[in-house]
Write a structure and sequence with these properties.
Layout lengths: L4 E5 L3 H11 L4 E6 L2 H11 L3 E4 L8 H11 L4 E6 L4 H9 L2 E6 L4 H12 L4 E2 L23 H11 L4 H8 L3 H15 L4 H12 L2
Parallel strand pairs: 1-2, 1-3, 3-4, 4-5, 5-6
Helix pairs in contact: 2-3, 6-8, 6-9, 7-8
Length: about 210
Amino acid sequence: MKRVRILLADDHRLTLKGIHDFLTPSYEVVGEVFDGGALVEAALRLRPDLILLDVTMPVMNGIDAARLIAKELPYVKLVFLTMHLDAGYLRAALAAGAAAYVVKTAAAEELMDALESALAGTVYVSPGISSHPVDEYPGRTPPAVHLSVREQEVLQLLSEGCSSKEIAFRLSISARTVGFHRENIRHKLGISTTAEMTRYVIAQSRT
């Protein structure tokens, strides 16, 4: 019997290795990538049956990557394995085409159940997520503000977990300038943590 081909995506390499070792006996792991951009490229090239991915990844977050993949490869099952418990992330993942949403604190057996459910055409969500408090933008859309092109670039990289030094290098600006843009972003949006920035970027991508 032909084994299901699965592509893995997570920016934590040790986590990815553990997942790879766990799934190998049951699935054919066709590739491992560490950022959202590489995930989209690998998905289009390898055309797996199932993709296991995280929400927060460099270059492109998992939600945006899933949306692009679902558009080009609608038959691929998308299973999120993440630390994010917020119902807002769950809704965004499902809207992007997710077939399952599993928290990383779940038991290994739950992940296997989620993969099997996704392959069977049913949606699986880790118990308790849907009732978890939503702390993004309850009952309203994200604030309507204007960010400069550079501020948008800095915000995207901050949402991906990049440090000021990394952003300065990638954008060819000084760390001091990054700090200046970050303060402007914080003032305009009223947010400062990476989690809040990631939620804002994802929410904006859906508008």
